[in-house]
Amino acid sequence: MSETRPESLHRRGFLAGVAVAGLGAAQARAESPAQGPATQAPAAPAPDKAKLPGYVAWKDADALIVHSNQTIETRRSAFGTGLITDESALYIRNNVNPPPESIVADRDGWRVEIAGVARPGTLTVGDLKRLGLTTVATVLQCSGNGRKYFQDRLPPGQKISGTPWTVGAAGCVLWTGVPLKAVVEAMGGPASGARFITGTGGEEIPPGLKPKDVMVERSVPLAALDTVILAWALNGRPISLAHGGPLRMIVPGYSGVNNVKYVKAVSLTEAETDAKIQAGSYRMHAVGEKAAPSQPPVWEQPVRSWITAPLEGSRAGRVVVAGVAFGGVNAVAGVEVSVDGGATWRKAELVGPDLGRFAWRQFALPADLGPGTHVLASRATDSAGNVQPEEVPANGGGYSHNGWRGPAVTLTLA
Amino acid sequence: MSETRPESLHRRGFLAGVAVAGLGAAQARAESPAQGPATQAPAAPAPDKAKLPGYVAWKDADALIVHSNQTIETRRSAFGTGLITDESALYIRNNVNPPPESIVADRDGWRVEIAGVARPGTLTVGDLKRLGLTTVATVLQCSGNGRKYFQDRLPPGQKISGTPWTVGAAGCVLWTGVPLKAVVEAMGGPASGARFITGTGGEEIPPGLKPKDVMVERSVPLAALDTVILAWALNGRPISLAHGGPLRMIVPGYSGVNNVKYVKAVSLTEAETDAKIQAGSYRMHAVGEKAAPSQPPVWEQPVRSWITAPLEGSRAGRVVVAGVAFGGVNAVAGVEVSVDGGATWRKAELVGPDLGRFAWRQFALPADLGPGTHVLASRATDSAGNVQPEEVPANGGGYSHNGWRGPAVTLTLA
């Protein structure tokens, strides 16, 4: 008996059994904003199999919402109640098509150019493994996670384009690699005048396009040198191509785009890169304005949280309201939970291991929810005293949403 | 290009590229004891695909050594340098065939009987999720991990039967579930006289056998009530059948057999169970003696560590010697590393997040290894001051090995 198709059962893990049938509807409701104008349903995923593009065909289709081949969201229900996010359920956001799978055929042979140091040169991943070792847990989150909550509240005539992510363009994972600081030290230290760490991704530039318009090259402040790692493993395994293997530059606490995939060059630079993805995108600007280098870049993530349980489909009675909370580069100081749409709040308990200040914490609070409709919300405070606001004014790129009302969960229990 | 078989490439993850060809030989050497009598090679795994039984066909065959359908070891090389162990590479040890996959079709419907409390009764996993939530990282380790190191040193005429595990019947994983204490409190607290927590597994008893001879029923001291959880998730996903889903009793710091899979009953009892797996097995006794209830049971794991990098196939020069160390129920206080077979020792650095006292820590120490043969060893100390000895006297079951010499790695570098 145990010889029969365990793989498919295992792979559908999160959505086992009777829960599957009703998920499409439940998901649509759970993801709709607690308040705000009635909006169109999101491009509704079929309740059976999402169509995964080939480079992520190994992922758990039932855990994911496919917005496009390059934008794939983790279902809120797929976060479950665990602490970390399995790679099979982790969101995908690419700015350019991934390189071919052949680049992970010889992982230790992947080369990265190190510049802006006293003795520049090129190292292989094999070389990097001789320079140091550490692991860091981070929340990897698309800069636009929660964009839908901005879009839903826009007045007529205003528009923010971009993927309408709800809460699922994020995950908490463990990266293993070498501290960039150890690499820089091995190469004689930073060149004089260095102010930024600039990483360049290994994507192929499609012919006919200007490289600067397409390349994924991002700069972050040199202060991050204390925490950046060049990572070869994710959750204990070599990083898949889809998530930036064989080598990814991890900038803990910074939004996803700053964590350069298939990193082929790291340079300590005097200025931010003028690649379009840095100079003309991922900037904080007003709705309707264009991005420009004078505007603040999207770097550190603000304090944020959301509910992961219970979701639609639960019964009335005693429940454990649970979710995740993180503070970007700051630790989480506390989380409050409301089961009445923000009218009253109670302090939740932080449970499970503390994976460090860049990771998310789990929180839990028992609550008695009678039959009827309830609006569950969470509001986190970070170690610097920042508290999630109720709503955040929209910005033109729909970045860094961290209001608590948008991701609130409306539940009708019987 | 990215549409071509990414799955298979991903799945072979750990052994990508040129390293594959030489692995069979490298593994055999790496796993052989640093000193001691010349022994037969272990039942050598083919360097290509290990044959995985159907219920674990979804695992990464390249990461595993199949001793039998019920005993499957993680290759030392598959630990990589990460902090946690992916379920695809986690070892398997079953005492009885797993139940059919159908038991994970409706996970929340799985029933567990709770007895030895003021108000006994049966709860579903769905009910348990309403009682509490926590996550705990533990080293899950077969009681017999390292048995080969005992077997290799036995004088002629003596014998310890059992799987010749080296270091790979272990992993560090995150479990999510409800604290058993919360369940017991919800049911009115322990019945008077309770001294043990007794968990019963959901294995089917083959017809014609006496249930007590076959059933997986284990008792641990009631003091563990402060830390035991009933877990439904492993590394953020629902627990696979192979690892005890839909529900497993996790006794942090205790060896694998105490962590009852597919747990169908938990009882607070006055005495240890008289099931054979508790009364007549997993006891500390002399070689040649039979197990008996008067002997100490195999419960808490002793302090232990091993090297995971570099392994055979590395080049001479500067390397980072890395590995994992744990202290059972005690935190790791420190780890020393020797690159000369134990003649001299240096303090290694503990790196990466501390997942709590039941988890393992990563350690790392830079070292310059010239051409020639080197014997790499690690020696951990726990927070109670216990230090790994060089060798451990053999015991009849080959349990709880924690000498540092056995798992030392002999490397020849060019």
UniProtKB/TrEMBL annotation, chains A, B:
GO MF annotation list: heme binding; molybdenum ion binding; molybdopterin cofactor binding; sulfite oxidase activity
Keywords for this entry?
Metal-binding, Molybdenum, Oxidoreductase
Keyword Oxidoreductase found: yes
Its required cofactor(s), as named, are: Mo-molybdopterin
Q: Where is the composition biased (Low complexity)?
A: 29-47
Q: Which GO terms describe its biological process?
A: sulfur compound metabolic process
Q: Which Gene3D superfamilies match?
A: 2.60.40.650, Oxidoreductase, molybdopterin-binding domain (3.90.420.10)
Question: Which residue intervals define the domain Oxidoreductase molybdopterin-binding in the entry?
Answer: 105-274
Top-rank lineage group of the source organism: Bacteria
Q: Where is this region: Disordered?
A: 29-49
The answer on whether this UniProt entry bears the keyword Endoplasmic reticulum reads no
Give the Moybdenum cofactor oxidoreductase dimerisation domain ranges: 299-404
Name of this chain's protein: Sulfite oxidase
* Organism of origin: Methylobacterium symbioticum
